[in-house]
Design goal:
Layout: H1 2-26, E1 31-36, E2 42-44, E3 57-62, E4 73-75, E5 79-83, E6 88-90, E7 96-106, E8 112-123, E9 126-134, E10 139-145, E11 152-156, E12 161-163
């Protein structure tokens, strides 16, 4: 009597496993990439809100992992947050005059090797510009923050790092 029940249970578990595994393997989950810039080496004016101890950081969510061997490929983020060290700018900001523009290059494993990302926002005091780049020709971060009481600029000429790479 045990045998038919145990066979039935084994068959049921095998069916559940067979239907669950393909779904998990083929799931096209979103991927989150996080950028951490190095501290600004230049800030202006000295009484502005951006200081040389601050840095640019961002979180970009894509619908899938970046593919291997991309070369300056434009991507569309499903969401993003950029922080200049003083203020955060989000994909939901209605004042974004230029939504996030992002291009990536990757190696054979899909690791980020070069990038160019920028976005512009209206604020009550003007336009904020957030920019980061790394290529064979140039590297660095730039933030122009007009949300401050005194408009402020922070920049450096050193690339930060991505996670995952």
């Amino acid at each position: 009597m045990d045998r038919p029940i145990s066979r039935s249970l084994r068959f049921a578990f095998a069916c559940v496993g067979a239907t669950a595994a393909p779904g998990a393997a083929n799931a096209n989950a979103s991927s989150t990439y996080t950028y951490t810039g190095v501290p600004y080496t230049y800030s202006y004016p000295s009484n502005g809100c951006l200081k040389e101890t601050m840095h640019l950081s961002m979180k970009i969510v894509l619908s899938a992992n970046l593919a291997p061997n991309l070369s300056n490929q434009a991507v569309t983020a499903t969401s993003w947050v950029i922080d200049d060290g003083s203020h955060s700018f989000k994909d939901t900001a209605k004042k974004a005059i230029v939504p996030l523009q992002a291009q990536f290059s990757t190696d054979d494993n899909g690791n980020i090797t070069a990038w160019s990302i920028n976005s512009y926002y209206y604020t009550k005091n003007g336009i904020d510009l957030l920019y980061t780049t790394h290529s064979s020709a140039t590297a660095g971060d730039y933030a122009d923050d007009d949300k401050c009481k005194t408009a402020s600029v922070g920049s450096n000429f050193t690339a930060g790092a991505w996670s995952p790479k």
